[in-house]
Amino acid sequence: MDVSFVGLGKLGLPLACTLAGSGNRIWGIDKNPYFIENLSNGNLPFYEPGLDKIFPNKNFIDFSDSYESISNTDATIILVSTQSDDGYSSAN
């Protein structure tokens, strides 16, 4: 399966790497140029326990800041930070 991931943070990147490790073709998309540059060069842009064990699988994952690859995938998963002004938080 070809899957695009929009958002390569602490949730998106591990999930993308896990699916790539299962043989799925992954296109990882993020607007952060620091993330894309590091990921494309085989470096993790942040620490997440265990992520270094599943990253990267260069045969199955590519990184970009362009949304064009979405049209070539079977599914798109969007994992981006959402801000809320409603006064609620996970602590409430």
Low-confidence stretches: none
Number of strands: 4
Report the radius of gyration as a whole number of Å.
14 Å
- Distance between the ends: 39 Å
Roughly what percent helix?
Answer: 10-25%
Query: Element order, helices and strands?
Result: EHEHHEE
Order of strands in the sheet with the most strands? 3-2-1-4
* Largest sheet report: 4 strands, parallel
Structural class: alpha/beta
- The gross shape turns out to be globular
Number of helices: 3
Our estimate of the beta-strand percent is: 15-25%
Mean pLDDT: 89
In short:
With 92 residues, the chain is of the alpha/beta class. The chain has 3 helices and 4 strands.
Q: What report would you give on this structure?
A:
With 92 residues, this protein is α/β, with parallel strands linked by helices. It is built from 3 helices and 4 strands. It has a 4-stranded parallel β-sheet. The longest helix is centred in the first third of the chain and has 10 residues, at 12-21. It starts with a strand and ends in a 14-residue tail after the last strand.
